[in-house]
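pls design
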């Protein structure tokens, strides 16, 4: 998706901070999609450093550019996810794979805050063959289990601020648990997200989102090409019929320029079966109670 001139702004300190990175990773060659070309010397010592920010606003703006956008247009991610069933007293076992799309839209509010609304849609695939599937064999009981699409359309949304992230239906703000690391010509953002207070069950997510350092330094871009991988421990889905089990999900994916980049077989199912997922409804922003979008 092309950037929209005038639709975003960066703090002065952010501009100065990005300029100071020019000497780091300078001269590296990049392929058209932003992936680094092989180094001429395969035995070079990796150059790395931990990136810190002078102000919370710099970190927030960097987070939005890397994982979302500073503009107010829709942003889509595409993931492949491998689910492993974790049953007490047993080693994790392969369960199912999901091919997933996440789409979100953003509004910037006074006080360096962003309201994010969106949805997720995942289609199950057989763990071994990778083909779309509607059923699986329970790896513990051996029973045939119907597998549901993973469709989330009614999430209340999030508020991102310099304090951290909170769901719009909760008062609790999760402080930022992040590590920003430069590795040669790449910038890695490692984020950890725990369960909010009162969460009924186990939950922990950790992921790493990576961008080319030269893209990060290009402050004309409100959003950056990015790839992400990570893992998430969460309660097992209801269709599995096991209230005590949890699922370990391992995922990898990329930020898209638009839904037209989705694989054709996935997009055809999305368009045919879930047309409501093609856009983020503006009503999510109009209907939000005033108290939910105020500090």
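designed seq:
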């Amino acid at each position: 998706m092309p950037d929209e001139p005038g639709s975003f702004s960066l703090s002065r300190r952010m501009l100065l901070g990005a300029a100071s990175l020019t000497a780091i990773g300078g001269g590296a060659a990049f392929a058209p999609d932003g992936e680094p070309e092989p180094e001429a010397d395969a035995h070079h010592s990796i150059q790395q450093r931990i990136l810190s920010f002078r102000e919370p606003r710099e970190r927030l703006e960097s987070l939005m550019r890397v994982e979302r956008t500073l503009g107010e247009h829709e942003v889509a991610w595409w993931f492949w996810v491998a689910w492993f069933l974790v049953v007490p007293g047993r080693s994790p076992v392969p369960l199912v794979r999901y091919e997933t799309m996440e789409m979100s839209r953003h509004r910037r509010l006074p006080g360096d805050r962003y309201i994010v609304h969106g949805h997720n849609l995942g289609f199950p695939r057989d763990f071994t063959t990778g083909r779309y599937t509607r059923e699986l064999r329970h790896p513990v009981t051996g029973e045939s289990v119907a597998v549901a699409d993973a469709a989330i359309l009614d999430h209340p949304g999030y508020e991102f601020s310099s304090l951290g992230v909170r769901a719009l239906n909760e008062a609790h703000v999760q402080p930022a648990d992040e590590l920003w690391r430069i590795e040669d010509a790449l910038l890695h953002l490692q984020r950890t997200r725990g369960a909010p207070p009162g969460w009924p069950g186990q939950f922990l997510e950790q992921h790493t989102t990576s961008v080319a350092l030269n893209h990060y330094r290009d402050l004309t871009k409100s959003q950056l090409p990015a790839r992400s991988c990570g893992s998430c421990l969460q309660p097992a889905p209801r269709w599995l019929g096991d209230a005590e089990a949890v699922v370990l999900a391992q995922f990898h994916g990329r930020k898209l320029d638009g839904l037209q980049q989705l694989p054709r077989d996935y997009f055809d199912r999305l368009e045919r079966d879930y047309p409501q997922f093609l856009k983020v409804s503006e009503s999510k922003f109009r209907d939000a109670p005033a108290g939910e979008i105020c500090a």
